[in-house]
Amino acid sequence: MSRGIELKNLSKSFGAKLAVDDISLSIGSGEIFGLLGPNGAGKTTTLKMLAGILQPSGGARSICGFDLEQSPTQAKQCLGFIPDDPFIYEKLSGREFLRLVARLYGCPDKGLELRVEELIDRFETQEWIDRRAESYSHGMRQKTVLAATLLHQPKVYLIDEPLVGLDPASIILVKQIFQEEAKKGCSLLISTHTLSLAESVCHRIGIIANGRLAALGTLEELMELSQHRHQDLESLYLEFTRSNEQ
Q: What's the superkingdom here (predicted)?
């Protein structure tokens, strides 16, 4: 299995605070990986380093085999990043934002409008997509940013809390899209508090606490690692995060 995402001894400090502590991880093509952990554990910091938004204090990171230090442009061309707080230019409509993102990524004009329409239909945003984004709810912004991320057909997705603000029908759709992208050979790294999302779509799970990976593996492998032989992700999550705090 080729590697879409690779971290080697990745660390990040903010002053005296060590936010991410020596994380090493490989995520293969076609794999959905869930990164779980409490607030302040280092999940978002890890994703931002992989997206090239934050500079690590130590270690290395690569996307589709491109080192982010040596080949940042090539690495970012492979990448789709969905932040925890979806950003859209307030004075643009959702449709205008989709067109802007497509052009920033260099998507060819031929077929662009058809692709935009397909995504508008897929996310069922027809009713409000031509309104200015300043009127959008969090869920509307989230759906627009998700659609925009799919436009340039990235090979790697970094996704921070994707289900916040979405209604149940949209949650089902987003899960389907993640699974479809994995079947195409894409690598997906999802940071989430939603344990049911990790349980239902992720091939492997990493539990992070105090900036360190406390546990890593499939759900079955995590059960084997459990000292108490827990059989559900909620109990496993609590065991591994609490033991790392001691």
A: Bacteria
What fold characterizes domain 1-78+157-246? Answer: Rossmann fold (3.40.50)
Residue in 124, 77, 119, 65 with CA at minimum distance from that of residue 97? 119
Is residue 49 within 8 A of residue 42, CB to CB? The reply is: no
What are the pLDDT digits (tens) for 52-96? 999 999 999 999 999 999 999 999 999 999 998 889 999 999 999
DSSP annotation of 134 reads: G
Interior/surface letters 199-226, b for 16+ CB within 10 angstroms, e for the rest:
eebbebbbbbbbbbbbbbeebeebbebe
Q: Cα–Cα distance between 97 and 120 in angstroms, integer?
A: 12
Are the C-beta atoms of 231 and 239 separated by less than 8 Å?
Answer: no
For the entire predicted model, the pTM comes to 0.93
Helix or strand (DSSP H, E) at 181:
helix 168-183
